[in-house]
Amino acid sequence: MTAQRPDETIVTQRGWRRLRRGHRVLRLANLASDVMWTAVVAPSLGWRSRLDVFYSPSNIVPPVTHCPSVVTIHDVNFLLQPDAYDRAYAQYAELMFGVTARRAAHVITDSEFSKRALVA
Predict the structure, then answer these.
(1) How far is CA 29 from the centre of its chain?
(2) How would you classify residue 51: left for phi > 0, otherwise alpha for psi between -120 and 50, otherwise beta?
(3) What is the Rg, in whole angstroms, of the alpha carbon atoms belonging to the chain?
C-alpha cells in the first residue's frame, strides 16, 4: 500500500505470473489462471481492502465487485482477426471484453479504433 494523502490509499496487487506461451496445454492453463484470478482472487482482495474504486489496467474487470470499476482495454484485434488467435482465447476475450465494457463505470481505450469496435 502506498499512502497518497491522509484520506487516500492506493492498493496495488500484481496478478499471478503466467506460464510460457506455446503448447496448447500451457495456453489453456494461462486462460484458467486468468479466469480464477478475475472471478475469485481480485474481487476478494478488493473486498478485503474495502476499495472505493477497482481499476484494472489489463482489459478485464471482475464480473462481481462491491464498488465501481474502471478498466483500460488496450486492443481488440481479436475481433478483426480471430484466426490469428487461439480459438479459446478469442472466444474468452470476446465474451469478457464485452462484459467488461458494459459493466465498468468507465472504459479507457488506447485508440479511437478500439473505442469504436467496443461500442459496435
Answers:
(1) 17
(2) beta
(3) 15
User: Which of the residue ranges 10-14, 55-59, 82-86, 99-103 would you say has the lowest mean pLDDT?
Assistant: 10-14
Q: What share of the chain is helix, strand, coil (3-state, %, to 5)?
A: 50, 15, 35
* Of 34, 38, 113, 105, residue with least CA distance to 80: 113
Instruction: For 95-114, give the DSSP string.
Output: HHHHHHHHH-SEEEESSHHH
> Whole-number mean pLDDT of the chain?
81
**Side-chain-facing half-sphere of 104: CA atoms under 13 Å:** 25
Measured in whole angstroms, the distance separating CA 70 from the mean position of its chain's CA atoms is 10
